[in-house]
Structure formats: C-alpha cells, structure tokens
Amino acid sequence: MYHSFPDNGTLYSALLNKDSSFEGLFVVGVKTTGIFCRPTCTARKPKRENVEFFGSAHEALLQGYRPCKVCSPLEQRGAAPEWLRPLLGEIDHDPFLRLKDSDLEKRGLEPGRVRSWFKKHHGMTFQAYLRVLRIGQAFGRVRYGEGVTQTAFESGYESLSGFVDSFKKTTGFPPSKSPHNRLGATTRILTPLGPMLAAGTDDGICLLEIIDRRMLETELERLSKLVNTRFLPGFCRHFEELNRQVEEYFSGKRESFTVPLVLPGAPIQQKVWTALQAIPY
Predict the structure, then answer these.
(1) What are the residue boundaries of the HTH araC/xylS-type domain, all occurrences included (predicted)?
(2) How many domains does the chain have?
(3) Is residue 21 classed as helix, strand or coil in its secondary structure?
(4) Are 139 and 175 found together in one domain?
C-alpha cells in the first residue's frame, strides 16, 4: 500500500483519461455493476457517484466486487497470455529452439498472433527473438573457448557462413572476436506499475525502467556505449534475484535492494546515485 493516496477527484480524472501512470496505484469499483477495473480499462466510464476507489484488487474483492473481464485487474499488466505460456516455457528450457510457422500451428498457435505479441512486447518478430537468443548462447560458447564451427552447427545453423553473417548482424562483431567483446542481456519484469525492462551484465544490473517510458531505446543505446556492451534479449545470472527482490518490494516485504548494480557515470553522477540510494523506504 502506498503511504499517500491521491484524492478521489484526481483518481476519477485518471480513470476518465485512462492514465497509465496510475497503474498499480488504485482500482475502481463500479457500484452499479459490482465490477472493479484498472485505471486504464477501455470499458465505458461510469458516473462519478457510482464509483469508489481501492488501493488494491484485494481490497475490492473483500468488498464483494468482481474483476472486470475487459481489463483483467487481477493479472499483471504486460503478462504473457495463457495461450502463449507453454511456448515461452519451451524457449526458457531450450534457447537453441528453432520453430517454423508450421511448428507453431502443430502446437495449436496461430503464427500471426504469436508474431504480433512478440512485436508488441519485444520490438521484434518471434523468429527474430529466437535468433537473438541463439546468437546470445553461441556468443558465450565461443567466448569461453568452443570452436566457431562446432558452435555454428550445434546452434542449428546449416552453414558456417550463415552463422557468421547472422552473428555479426546481431552483435556487431564476428564470432572470432567474442573473447574480446561483451554482451549484456535484457528481460521483461512484471510489476504492479506495468512491465519493466531490466538490463544486466555479469557484473550486475545496469537498468530497470518502465517499458512505456519515452526514449527508452535511446537510453539503452546510451547505456551500451557507457559500459561498452551490446544488449540483447536473453539471460543474465542476476535477473532471477532482481525479479525476486522487486516482487518483495511491491508486496511490502523489502525496503532496500541488495542485487549488484553497475552504475557508469561521471563522479557527480555517482554521488547523486549514492544519495538516492540512501533515501529511506
């Protein structure tokens, strides 16, 4: 629960405007229907006298309200739909997975629907996402001593030239230069405020930002230059711990973070960040 709750006029205005910055701050109960909704619900807006506001979905449920079927307030915004979760589980289990549209259809999935979801939430098609994951895994193998040719064929490529070309387009350097370069990873973390983008390296977490934020792509490019690291969707050893600590924070069980951080910047920026971390919960 937040310490300061805006007045009802502000909350109603946010509801009318579908203001996404209020996601996670409140839900609204509609007295005439017995339904409660997110601030961003696209359903027809009720009159002011017919609503009441709650700090959480749990409070609305305790008052007898039912979750809206349009905006699904019990689900975290940005969460993968149920029909897609088995496929995501397969990818997590095997990052080298190669799937064609026909393979998706055999799993009961419509390729265009899968493609649209990945385009919206990851900024790339499903096939491009799989390719980036394979290249990320291949980078690690080559960097730590495995041969380029062996890695290429074990990554599912039918030719060495095709692997080298794809690798270079994705990372900006050929596989043979892997021992002298670095790749970082990005992932989506779901929060009550909406999905957030996390970026990390072997040294720690260097970005956690709301995905809807403007100029996020520019911010990631600037970060890449500062840490001399190209970031790709993938896996980082700090993501699991970050996700756990973020969940604990939003549930009120954690007041500070201990996950390792990478904070590149000028001395004055370092001082500011140190001061910000000292602000109490």
Answers:
(1) 108-181
(2) 3
(3) helix
(4) yes
Give the whole-angstrom CA distance, residue 110 versus residue 101. Answer: 8
Name which of 197, 186, 184, 206 is nearest 261 in CA terms: 206
Q: Give all strands (DSSP E) within the chain, no chain letters.
A: 27-30, 35-37, 51-54, 66-67, 183-189, 196-201, 204-210, 230-233
Look at residue 198 and tell me whether its pLDDT is greater than 80.
yes
On whether both 200 and 144 belong to a single domain, the answer is: no
pLDDT in tens, 14-32: 999 998 878 878 999 999 9
Q: Is the CB of residue 51 less than 8 Å from the CB of residue 28? A: yes
In a domain? residue 96: yes
Its sign, for the CA torsion 85, 208, 251, 59, is negative
Enclosing domain of residue 176: 82-180
Q: How many helices (H) and strands (E) does the chain have?
A: 11, 8
Q: Determine how many CB atoms are found less than 10 A away from the CB of residue 255.
A: 9
> Are the C-beta atoms of 187 and 78 separated by less than 8 Å?
no
116-132 confidence digits (pLDDT tens): 999 888 889 999 999 99
Provide the whole-model pTM.
Answer: 0.71
- Say whether pLDDT at 146 is over 80: yes
Instruction: List, edge to edge, every strand of the sheet that includes 196-201.
Output: 204-210, 196-201, 183-189, 230-233
| Distance between CA atoms of residues 52 and 223, nearest Å | 43
Q: Quick count: other Cβ atoms within 10 Å of Cβ 90? A: 12
Domain membership flag for residue 50: yes
Per DSSP, helices labelled H in 38-84 are 57-62
Nearest CA among 115, 143, 126 for reference residue 230? 143
